[in-house]
Design brief:
Layout: E1 3-10, H1 16-29, E2 35-42, E3 48-50, H2 63-69, E4 71-78, E5 81-86, E6 94-98, E7 100-103, H3 114-122, H4 131-138, H5 140-149, E8 157-161, H6 162-167, H7 169-176, E9 183-187, E10 197-199, H8 202-213, E11 218-223, E12 228-237, E13 242-250, H9 259-264, E14 288-289, H10 296-312, E15 317-326, E16 331-338, H11 356-375, H12 396-401
Parallel strand pairs: 1-2, 1-7
Antiparallel strand pairs: 2-3, 3-4, 4-5, 5-6, 8-11, 9-10, 9-11, 12-13, 12-15, 13-14, 15-16
Length: about 400
């Protein structure tokens, strides 16, 4: 019997289209001899749809056709089975049932643990990091605080909330003066280089902050690493075992590896895998060297650091860890971890003879093992706490009468 794999993607996020690219690629590479592949598409209004047409990139160009030929559904646990049920009409029917979900979501509001929380509540197994790993994976400030505490190098940085800046911009600018120009300003919880700008002086710093505030209330400002080259490494595994991929050197055309480099640049219009039409290859579109032409000692440092960061940040499944390397000082910094990387970083595993279908097999196997392990853990226990509940007063009255506070 085939495993019924739901691929969940889209949603209300600035990276909606990027998520579609990742999902359609993954659906095209899943081994249909092993799996029944079921699209689970969230519109920008978070309406859920399923149907075979969703495997074709063309359908996303015509939202009205999508709604006409695909089923509007909800997902829930029906007597221990995970089903997609029709949402509209008098007579509700089960459109599909799911054994496991592959989240192929990107961006704030989707990749940051919200989807994983929903799946946890339903009880359905899913690939990738759990809610904790995804929260840390999305918040670049959390990442740096945790990595720094474990002795893993990150660029010198500061951060603040938009309200703090809007209330007293002079104070924030003064605080940031402790960093050296040029600085890079980022919305702390966005991805795909959205809202990121380089600041070379105070005027451009203010402009960059104003841009970042459009996308997030939490803003990260870092010193730009000098003599920098960007190197990335993927990790596959769980808390039990993990392995590092080949390393890539990314060659962006813009000053930073921008959204344009990643998704719109040269090669972005070419076909990808088994997709049924010409479409962006996502991160594969960026110019890169794989494996990176770097000294073996540096490669080993990157792989060792990647495995440490993977463990420290509580990741699972497949992630991509991005590095900034100062060629002159020979200093390596972790830039960020991507808990659901674009294209699931399959291209970093092909040099190790692990093709995309095999990578997806590994993701599913890791998720199944984690799910079985989780089922063995105690998640509830018998308690008589309600036996002493004192009506509408609860324990509040007792606390006061016993003078405990």
């Amino acid at each position: 019997m085939k495993i019924k794999v739901g691929v969940l993607y889209g949603g209300k996020t600035t990276e909606h289209e990027v998520s579609i690219i990742t999902a359609v690629q993954a659906m095209g590479f899943l081994n249909t001899e092993k799996y029944d592949v079921i699209p689970i598409y969230l519109t920008k209004e978070n309406e859920m749809y399923t149907g075979e047409p969703l495997k074709d990139m063309e359908i996303y160009k015509e939202p009205e056709l999508l709604k006409r030929y695909c089923s509007n559904v909800v997902m829930y646990n029906k007597n221990g089975a995970f089903v997609l049920q029709s949402k509209r009409g008098i007579f509700k029917r089960v459109v599909a049932d799911i054994d496991i979900v592959i989240p192929a979501v990107h961006g704030y509001g989707m990749e940051d643990g919200n989807i994983e929380g929903m799946l946890d509540v339903i009880g359905v197994p899913y690939t990738g990091s759990d809610i904790y790993g995804c929260v840390v994976g999305q918040d670049k400030v959390f990442q740096k605080q945790i990595l720094s505490s474990e002795g893993i190098s990150v660029p010198k940085y500061d951060w603040f909330y938009d309200a703090e800046y809007l209330e007293n911009p002079k104070e924030i600018i003064s605080r940031l003066s402790k960093l050296k120009y040029p600085m890079i300003v980022k919305p702390a919880r966005q991805g795909s280089s959205i809202g990121i700008k380089i600041a070379k002086d105070e005027d451009s710093l203010r402009d960059a902050i104003e841009e970042a505030i459009k996308y997030d209330e939490k803003i990260l400002v870092e010193e730009v690493v000098p003599n920098m080259t960007e190197l990335n490494c993927s990790v596959l595994g769980s808390s039990n075992y993990a392995e590092a991929s080949a390393i890539e050197q990314v060659m962006g055309k813009d000053e930073i590896l921008s959204f344009n480099d990643k998704y719109i640049g040269s090669g972005a219009k070419k076909g990808a895998g088994k997709m049924k039409m010409g479409a962006s290859k996502g991160m594969v579109s960026a110019e890169r060297v794989v494996p990176a032409d770097i000294p073996e000692k540096l490669a080993e440092e990157i792989k060792d650091t990647s495995l440490r960061a993977f463990r420290v940040l509580g990741a699972s499944g497949v992630v991509r860890i991005d590095y900034l390397y100062d060629k002159k000082a020979k200093k390596l910094y972790v830039n960020e971890i991507n808990s659901i990387p674009g294209c699931l970083s399959f291209y970093l595993w092909t040099p190790l003879k692990k093709e995309y279908p095999e990578l997806l097999d590994d993701l599913i196997n890791i998720a199944v093992k984690r799910y079985k392990k989780k089922l063995k853990k105690t998640t509830s226990f018998e308690s008589n706490i309600l036996s002493s509940f004192n009506g509408s007063k609860g324990t509040k009255g007792k606390i006061r009468s016993n003078n405990n506070f």
